[in-house]
Amino acid sequence: MSDNIIEVRGLKKHYLGGKVKALDGVDTNISRGEVVVVIGPSGSGKSTFLRSLNLLEMPTDGTINFNGTNITDKKVNINLHRQKMGMVFQHFNLFANMNIIKNMTLAPTQLLKKSKAEAEEKARNLLKRVGLEDRATAFPSQLSGGQKQRVAIVRALCMEPEVMLFDEPTSALDPEMVGEVLEVMKSLAKEGMTMVVVTHEMGFAREVADRVIFMDEGKILEEGTPEEIFDNPKCERLQNFLAKVL
Amino acid sequence: MDALNTFFLGFKEKFILCFIDDKRWEWLVEGFLNSIIITVLALLVGLVVGIILAAIRSSYDKNEESLRIRGGIGYHILRFLNAISKFYITVIRGIPVVVQLMIWYFVIMAAADDIPIAVVAFGLNSGAYVAEIFRGGIMSIDNGQFEAGRSMGFSYFQTMVHIVIPQTVKSTLPTLLNELIALFKETSIAGYVGILDLTKAGERIRGITFESVLPLGAIAVIYLVTVVVLTKIVTVIERRLRRNER
Fold first, then answer.
1. Residues of A in contact with B150 (CB under 8 A)
2. CATH homologous superfamily of domain B27-245?
3. What does pTM read for this prediction?
4. Distance between CA B53 and CA B88 in Å, rounded?
5. What are the tens digits of pLDDT across the range B115-156?
6. Domain map (residue ranges) of chain B
7. Are A31 and A2 in contact (CB under 8 A)?
């Protein structure tokens, strides 16, 4: 068995009976410890691809193996596998009715059956790491966007996931807050976390990614190291795309 | 002065005739209590029916796509239940409640006691409205809250219980209390099928004494005062909820 944590084969997501093809046959592997950044124009299917990995989007066709289990098989309990896949959203999605510490301890206490004290200790340590230990009892509405996203990242880490999925984590942030979130993600990557990141932050992709995937019209058009993708793009679509965003 | 005196004397006489003689005020008390009992019990029936219908309808709305792709019997059961719920809500909301009441009284429950008939008729009627209040509340919560819960590994049910429903309580409670007030006023048609509610009590006094002003005035004031008090309570609760928002 290879050290692929995720193997995607022939992934398709069609809407309206096939008229709209958000994903049109995606094949790729993600190996343990790898940082994969997915780029592409809007509507290219990159978010759909990411959200398919934990079945927030149910694929129309194809398979996804996670830790060797085909999670698209309907006999598989997806909830157990999702515990091992942290996800960070564009709009943070902190639970609005809970304070920060409760946001972070809900899943570990309910799903992993950790004691409240144990879960809170871990949560506080993680908060300290992102410089928000003094906001533990604040509510999400009292935090800035950058703070919310940092909390969202450590909330996902509380479940000790094996892979982290980031869905445009900085797209909803004011420009001056993008840096603080990217810093947290960089330090996570340095620690060896497996990460799949959909982003428009080309600087981040170039600096942190082990591999960059370029998607358009529901397909992977090109993939490679950041150097290959940014300095020596082969397909015309990617060249056009880079000319516009860089 | 004389005219005024005559008026007051006349008023006093009429007051005694309408409310004191033969202890007619007792009808008003009994009628008022019956109105309250019917309202409260019907609301409880309405809550149970409404929660069940709303659970079916919103489960269908939220899971339709993924269940359809995965297939299986669960999808067909949920689809069937959803169709029944929709049909129920359409029928109930499309028929005047007084007609429903008469159908229950003269057709379906012809042998039953008065008050249980009213409770069933008003309760099942109210259930359709309560269902839409709850469903509206659930669907108004940002889907990101739901997705964040599911992405951590919470099941659909756990996500609803821990994350979505607590947030809907706040938004639906005032609307629900307004439904209670509307229901209380609606019960004034119970007299159509011979139930002694507050309105019927007034009518009975009017029929015996041939006095219209005092009995109708009395029940109008009692309804008004009750509604004003209930509205006041709603306002206080709304304010409390808003204060707890942060």
1. 56, 82
2. MetI-like (1.10.3720.10)
3. 0.84
4. 9
5. 999 999 999 999 999 999 999 999 999 999 999 999 999 999
6. 27-245
7. yes
